[in-house]
Amino acid sequence: MSVGDMVYHDPYTPERKYVECLDCGHRTTAPETPESCPECEGAVKNIAVPRE
Fold first, then answer.
1. Is 18 within 8 Å of 44 (Cβ atoms)?
2. Buried b (16+ CB within 10 A) or exposed e, 19-49
3. Interatomic CA distance for residues 33 and 18, integer angstroms
4. N- to C-terminal Cα distance for the chain?
5. Which DSSP string corresponds to 1-52?
6. pLDDT digits (tens, 9 = 90+) for 1-49
7. Which residues pair with 21 in a beta bridge?
8. Considering Cα of 20, then 26, then 35, then 18, what sign does the dihedral take?
9. How far apart are CA 13 and CA 4, in angstroms?
10. By CB neighbour count within 10 A (0-12 exposed, 13-18 middle, 19+ buried), where does 11 fall?
11. Angle, CA of 7, 9 and 12, to the nearest 5°
């Protein structure tokens, strides 16, 4: 198998949100953006990058 034969699978799905806590840095995925961090109740930011 050569490098040209390898297939990269992009794990991004637009249905799942990838969020990071602005206070503690905890990252998680969820179907909907949570109101607050599940670890420390801090504010979260959606860090998913759309690929269109």
1. no
2. bebeeeeeeeeeeeeeeebeeeeeebeeeee
3. 8
4. 30
5. --GGG--PPP---TTSEEEEETTT--EEEESS--SS-TTT---EEE------
6. 555 566 766 665 666 788 999 999 999 988 888 899 999 999 999 887 6
7. 44
8. positive
9. 25
10. exposed
11. 160
Is-contact 20 7, C-beta < 8 A?
no
Residue 49 token pair: 């990058």
Tokens of 27: 């990252």
- Which residues have C-beta within 8 Å of that of residue 8, sequence separation ≥ 6? none
d(CA 1, CA 5): 6
Q: Tokens representing 15?
A: 């249905």
Res 4: pLDDT: 56
